[in-house]
Amino acid sequence: MTTVWLIGGTSESRLLAQGLVKRGVECVVTVTTEPARSLYATYPGLTVWVGKLKGSSLDEFTRSHDISVILDTSHPWAVKISQLAIAFSECSQIPYLRYERPPVTDDSGSSQIVTLDSFATLVSGDYLTDQRVFLTVGYQRLPLFQPWQHQATLFARVLPSAKSIQIAQEAGFTSDRLIAIRPPIPEALELALWQHWQISLVVTKASGNAGGEAIKRQLCDRLGIPLITITRPKMSYPQQTEDIEEAIEFCLSHVI
């Protein structure tokens, strides 16, 4: 039987990997860091590959692992690996499916939620002035907020890695305005942190329930503070689904 290349790094990818190997399908999951590897349980037929793939190395990677199908479960904001996989799928004729985690739907009509189309719109506007802002946007985007360090009081949550902490500090975040912790974050801890820092505005990415977006919406509504949500990057996928079982069946139909 051939192998599924599962582009990982999300909680859904762990569920899909488990579901595939339990059905007897061999699966190689690609992640970019060693901490991400440790999140996957050990199963017969499951390989976790750590590193950053490039277009020049994909042909060798897929041949060495006997890949017959690509299941993209990467984070909604990890557009580069999705673009790479789609392009490779088209030229190699290897079937590709995107598992896209469902967006958070909010029918409450809350006036606390502000949706913006980009980080550029946020930092070029006047949304942050004189606010105590909690940023849950990933360490890579913290440098965008460096010019705001003297116009607002900024706090950030980052992953517990030396690289993320270093980039945050270089962007002007002092140790008393940083917390390094790996999601998911319990609601009680989230609430306590916001209250301790006296947060008046929260900024997050539209990352779905698995990214904790729903909890942030609920807490902002409860505390009466605004939540700014940055919409997902626009991507055109050849095929996609929000159903985990459908994604597994797609893989089963293409392994030999």
From TrEMBL:
GO terms for biological process: cobalamin biosynthetic process. This is Cobalt-precorrin-6A reductase. PANTHER family: COBALT-PRECORRIN-6A REDUCTASE. Keywords: Cobalamin biosynthesis, Oxidoreductase. It comes from the Bacteria. Pathway: Cofactor biosynthesis; adenosylcobalamin biosynthesis. InterPro entries: Precorrin-6x_reduct (IPR003723). PROSITE patterns: COBK_CBIJ. GO terms for molecular function: precorrin-6A reductase activity.
